[in-house]
Amino acid sequence: MNSPVTVHLPLGTAKVAARSLSVHYGEKHALQSVDLEIRAGEVTALIGPSGCGKSTFLRCINRMNDMVDGARVSGSLTLDGSDIYDRSLDVVQLRARVGMVFQKPNPFPKSIYDNIAYGPRIHGLARNQDELDEIVMTSLERAGLLAEVKDRLTESGTGLSGGQQQRLCIARAIAVGPEVILMDEPCSALDPIATAKVEELIDDLRDNYTIVIVTHSMQQAARVSQRTAFFHLGKLIEVGDTEQIFTNPQQPLTQGYITGRFG
Amino acid sequence: MEEQVHTVKSYDGELGHLTGIIARMGGMAEAQFASSLHALARRDEALAQRVIEGDARIDELDKEVQSFAVRLLALRQPMAVDLRQIVGALNISGEIERVGDYAANLAKRSLVLHHVGVSVPVAGVVRLGDLVRGLLKDVLDAYLEKDVAKALGVWSRDEEVDAMYNGVMQDLITLMTEDSGTITAATHLLFIAKNIERIGDHATNIAEALHYQILGTSPAGSRPKGNTVGGPE
């Protein structure tokens, strides 16, 4: 695949590291001094009730919070050891390295082909049409969508089913050669079959990408992730191997949340 | 936190129902085992018969636990302590069901023993039975009280059972060696002793399952074993 050089770290080393990371939205202290390492080559699930800070944490990693008025970030957050909030850092480049998939599939009102080709074009990743074709095909293949759309690449991306649209968005994120993929409730608008396909895709993708997923479905977190972090009221309460978190959590708050005994 | 109720309150009722069935099963298995020992000690054929017939009720409750637990797994998709409680119920119910089977088998053999017509001393076997009854009672109490320390006590006392079982076996072998006329009766008694020893093993299995249910871990280290000629675990 024609993409920027991907930094391959040994499995389990910290790809993204937060140290005393805090976020304020105006007066609201949305994230309170979080220390958390996201390991390379793993899927990390962020769970917790609404307003717990999990999405805020996710949006720090590709600086989506920059767009929120009154948002202030303090502490440190690094990608491969480099400060994500360094003033000299090019946010566009950061977002090519850290891709994002949203709750609602949001394909561009363009052809399936152009949805994927858009990013590589603006980042100048292909020298000619053949290379661009190659990126589009590889991305669709990796997103498990190629077989379903290969004969209709010129049709609009918005004409696909919801599940196909979400996989198109994943293909679009992959096309610019990211190292990290952030997923914010990627299946909450999908039916169970489409959800299963995306979950299977996540499992395939983790060989090549570090994935962070926010989900309200505890079963989904248990199925797709290797590490799980539980947030509550802006604080990281517990992080551990997913199996341990779901069978034998150490914190009473975690236990209360995942067993449905909350408040 | 365990005492805190679920947001879906009927879930608490369902978990309570599951524990309730296990409690009933445990009580019945204890009674069946005690009765089978009485029937052996007092040569009470009618009581032995009642034990044999009574086993079907424990089996029914075991099936009820299995199907109710499967239903809970499917409907509630339990996590953490709830998951461990339901998996624990499945395991413990199976163990209690086996205790019931051994008690019924003991009762059957006590009838056969009675009909053999040769008298062999049963006091040693009954003493072994009383020791194991104590373990079974303690582990079932530990289940209801969610008492890990009590469960661990049962787990480590299985050694005493093995030692006493070995003594009983030696006595019976000596008896058979000295008087070949006792071989039929003593062999039945030997099987009875083995059944009792197995009930002790099931009590320790329950203790282990309970330890996992409450703490999420197996008891540390291997269980002390006093039986060097024991069969498979």
Automatic annotation (TrEMBL), chain A:
It comes from the Bacteria. Transmembrane segments: none annotated. Keywords: ATP-binding, Nucleotide-binding, Phosphate transport, Transport. PANTHER family: ABC TRANSPORTER I FAMILY MEMBER 17. InterPro entries: AAA+_ATPase (IPR003593), ABC_transporter-like_ATP-bd (IPR003439), ABC_transporter-like_CS (IPR017871), P-loop_NTPase (IPR027417), PstB-like (IPR005670). SMART domains: AAA. One of its GO terms (biological process) is phosphate ion transmembrane transport. GO terms for cellular component: membrane. One of its GO terms (molecular function) is ATP binding. This is Phosphate transporter ATP-binding protein. Pfam families: ABC_tran (PF00005). Residues 16-258 form the ABC transporter domain.
From TrEMBL, chain B:
It holds the Pfam family PhoU. SUPFAM superfamilies: PhoU-like. InterPro entries: PhoU (IPR028366), PhoU-like_sf (IPR038078), PhoU_dom (IPR026022). It comes from the Bacteria. It comes from Magnetospirillum fulvum MGU-K5. It is found in: Cytoplasm. Belongs to the PhoU family. Signal peptide: none annotated. Homodimer. Plays a role in the regulation of phosphate uptake. Residues 22-109, 126-209 form the PhoU domain. The lineage of its organism: Bacteria, Pseudomonadati, Pseudomonadota, Alphaproteobacteria, Rhodospirillales. This is Phosphate-specific transport system accessory protein PhoU. GO terms for cellular component: cytoplasm. GO terms for biological process: intracellular phosphate ion homeostasis; negative regulation of phosphate metabolic process; phosphate ion transport. Keywords: Cytoplasm, Phosphate transport, Transport.
